[in-house]
């Protein structure tokens, strides 16, 4: 009787650990209020492996440059190190914030890309109703007009993942708040050259 009792307890513990790990990975991959570095999320969720198999990759500074369409306050943005470049530095802990109730960031790509996924890391700006009350992700090819890819009101999440393919030579993120200054922590594009 004791032998079977010990085996049952061991099996129960193994199942419990498996469930806890599975729930943790699902929360990490699908989303949670906990901010994880992009590299940990990529390894646990397999994002890099799947992207590389079909030629998609995370676009970095060598593939794009950024400008702010909103005036960036010298005192409240540039001198505090929250200028537009922080949005594409690969670090979710750094903030891009113009010192304004509106943001307008334009990422110009070095060549046209097919974008398969866009990740916007809002942090608290995406969860507290006095901050981002409306946002829009747009794209354009060459000199064409901006086309809305996705838009919404308060994200109600620390991050927004936009899936779906679109072709772009430039990507634009705009957001606004009627009450307070806003910002975003990271804008990540996954794509491949056209």
Question: How does this model look, in words?
Answer:
This protein has helices at residues 2-30, 38-45, 47-53, 74-78; strands at residues 57-58, 64-68, 102-121, 134-140, 147-152, 159-176, 186-193. With 194 residues, it is an alpha+beta fold. Strands 1, 2, 3, 4, 5, 6 and 7 form a 7-stranded antiparallel beta sheet that branches.
The helix count comes to: 4
CATH class: Mainly Beta
Portion in helices: 25-40%
- Mean pLDDT across all amino acids: 83
Look up the CATH topology. Answer: Jelly Rolls
- Output the structural class: alpha+beta
Number of strands: 7
- Structural domain count: 1
Low-confidence stretches: 30-36, 46-53
The major sheet is characterized as: 7 strands, antiparallel
Shape call: globular
N→C terminal distance: 67 Å
H/E element order: HHHEEHEEEEE
Q: Write the CATH homologous superfamily.
A: Galactose-binding domain-like
Hey, roughly how much beta strand do the residues contain?
25-35%
Radius of gyration, in angstroms, nearest whole number: 20 Å
CATH architecture: Sandwich
Tags for this model:
34% strand; seven-stranded antiparallel β-sheet; alpha+beta; Jelly Rolls; 194 residues; 4 helices
Summarize the structure.
The chain has 194 residues and is α+β, with helices and mostly antiparallel strands. The protein has a single domain (58-193), classed as Galactose-binding domain-like (Jelly Rolls), CATH 2.60.120. The protein is built from four helices and seven strands, in the order αααββαβββββ.
